[in-house]
Specification:
This protein is of the alpha/beta class and 549 residues long. It has helices spanning 3-7, 17-36, 55-62, 72-83, 103-115, 126-143, 157-173, 177-180, 197-205, 225-237, 260-274, 308-321, 390-426, 453-457, 463-482, 526-536, and strands at residues 93-94, 151-155, 186-191, 212-215, 241-248, 280-284, 329-333, 345-349, 430-432, 441-446, 488-492, 497-500, 503-508, 511-515. 42% of the residues are buried.
Length: 549
């Protein structure tokens, strides 16, 4: 392969029509081949590819880099093979928050890829810098932040936002921590149902996992305010310093929404009583934060004519989501309910000046920080090189608009309400275990005979009784999983924790999960899904599989 041949592996530098046509042909072939695998009644692109226990070992042994590069037609063929059996977000894909990437999101990512700028600096990535500033302003206004003071950046998922919020929380209380290290008496707080990203962040910052205080969750799967207050007092009494509270606004399994307004009131009281510096509140709104788009919706006039039951559900969500602006920082994972490709997450903070606490000195960034041109240098991010994912976010916001997002978010509520009714009507020994929460998620739990969910929630059963039902549901997970090509349900081994009569330890609850994430899932498709569950139950044998809790 001579240099001219190598050059053909790149987009042209001059808009050459032949090179352009060749490039578009590869893209067309990729899309058309993947489309040929689609079946709206399945949840995978063709049959699931069975993988033996030695599958990855065989790959390791056989994979090699060719001495001479393959023809691009062969490369595209190899890529299309990867799509066979891949999960796909059809109407029957209801497993978790894994969305179908929208056309505007895909076009945005393609634009990002073609420009291939580094979002670190506007000289290297002017398009990404411009769109990042735009989406910061757009989302700040939607959530209720003062857009003239707020700031943010795109990052690596909700984990990146939680971690960045913690960095800020430390820096705000201990500005010298970057140079001197952190004190050994810092504490963070989150619900026992919160995402594990805070645990990873606490370990990474050196605070230590023992300094993560888990707050009990109530029957609506949100943080118990009395327990939060008691645990804050306990930590302070022992000489600890509370610096960070993560309020989950839309838990991954149950769509529990922590009460930010009450959390803010409690922290204000603690700060005044104990003469503390402000405790940083981060709203982990990666999933549920998109419902803030109803903050200014006229629920009385109901301009989009939502059904009464759907409107009531949206109003219930809005009563807590409307207080997102009280958080010091928050995030939006557009690759979740924003319907854009991975990875497109936005981290926002209420007071943009706080980023100066994390910024590097110019002499520390000689490649960019001490140059005399370019005014957008993100030295305060943990990443150095940054993908311009704001372009995809920007494209989606422009294409969907507020009302477009409201319609799809409302459909998630509509479908879940209908699913719950159909499921419990057809299968009386199944209980909805997040009945007080409405949104895109329904969790359900199978019982051998009569439903015992209320007894479990109230702490009236033994650990062994709860475990027996967990084992029953583990079997159901396995059976549903074997047929995920038909309907791809989700599951969790820790939807929540409950008390038991014979132990002081909180016991996890296993539940299956219906997560409406496809724009194509409608009420008409639910009978098939309920039938799939009903067909699986007789296969749950009497020999209970041993699982540890």
């Amino acid at each position: 392969m001579d240099l001219k041949e190598v050059q053909q592996l790149f987009p042209s530098e001059d808009g050459d029509k032949l090179q352009q046509a060749t490039f578009l042909n590869y893209i067309e072939k990729l899309i058309m081949t993947i489309d040929s695998y689609k079946d709206p009644n399945k949840s995978t692109l063709g049959p699931i590819q069975e993988k033996s226990s030695d599958f990855y070992k065989e790959i390791i042994e056989t994979a090699h880099t060719p001495n001479n590069g393959l023809d691009m037609e062969q490369v595209v063929n190899e890529l299309t093979k990867l799509a066979k059996g891949h999960p796909y977000h059809t109407r029957n894909f209801v497993t978790n928050v894994l969305p179908m990437a929208s056309i505007p999101g895909i076009i945005g990512i393609l634009t990002t890829t073609l420009l291939n700028g580094n979002n670190l600096w506007d000289v290297y990535g002017p398009a990404a810098a411009e769109t990042e500033v735009k989406v910061i302003s757009m989302m700040s206004k939607l959530v209720g932040y003062d857009h003239t003071k707020s700031w943010g950046y795109t990052t690596w998922g909700g984990q990146g936002a939680v971690f960045s919020g913690l960095r800020l929380a430390i820096a705000k209380q201990f500005p010298k921590a970057k140079e001197e290290g952190i004190p050994n008496n810092l504490y963070c707080f989150a619900s026992e149902t919160a995402h594990y990203s805070l645990l990873k962040s606490i370990e990474a910052t050196g605070i230590g996992s023992n300094h993560l205080i888990r707050v009990k969750a109530g029957k609506d799967h949100s943080m118990d305010m009395n327990d939060l207050q008691a645990k804050l007092e306990e930590v302070i009494h022992k000489g600890g310093i509370p610096i960070y509270i993560v309020a989950t606004t839309g838990t991954t399994d149950s769509f529990g929404i922590d009460d930010i307004k009450s959390i803010k009131a409690i922290t204000a009281e603690m700060e005044k009583k104990h003469k503390l510096k402000p405790i940083h509140i981060h709203a982990d709104s990666a999933l549920g934060g998109f419902y803030c788009l109803f903050r200014e919706y006229d629920f009385k006039q109901n301009p989009l004519q939502f059904e009464d039951e759907v409107l009531e559900g949206l109003s219930k969500i809005n009563r807590r989501m409307q207080h997102l602006y009280l958080a010091d920082s928050l995030c939006f994972d557009f690759q979740k309910l924003g319907q854009t490709p991975y990875l497109t997450s936005l981290f926002l903070i209420k007071n943009g000046e706080d980023f100066s606490l994390l910024d590097l000195e110019e002499f520390e960034t000689p490649y960019v920080g001490n140059r005399g041109y370019g005014s957008y240098h993100t030295g305060y991010t943990l990443e150095c090189s940054r993908m311009g994912s704001s372009i995809a976010i920007y494209a989606a916001l422009l294409a969907f608009g507020v009302t477009g997002y409201q319609k799809i978010l409302a459909n998630y509520v509509r479908v879940n309400l209908a699913f719950r009714k159909k499921l419990t009507a057809r299968i009386p020994n199944i209980s909805i275990t997040n009945n007080e929460n409405i949104g895109p998620i329904t969790t359900f739990r199978l019982y051998k005979d009569a439903v015992q969910w209320e007894l479990e929630q109230n702490g009236n059963l033994t650990r062994e009784q709860i475990q027996q039902t967990n084992e029953l549901n583990y079997q159901l997970f396995e059976i549903l999983g074997e047929h995920r090509e038909d309907v791809f349900f989700g599951d969790t081994k820790k939807q929540c924790l409950v008390d038991a009569v014979n132990t002081d330890e909180r016991v996890p609850i296993y539940a299956a999960k219906f997560f409406s994430i496809s724009p194509y899932t409608e009420i008409d498709h639910l009978d098939h899904m309920v039938q799939a569950i009903e067909n699986s139950i007789p296969k749950v044998g009497s020999d209970i599989i041993e699982v540890s809790i």
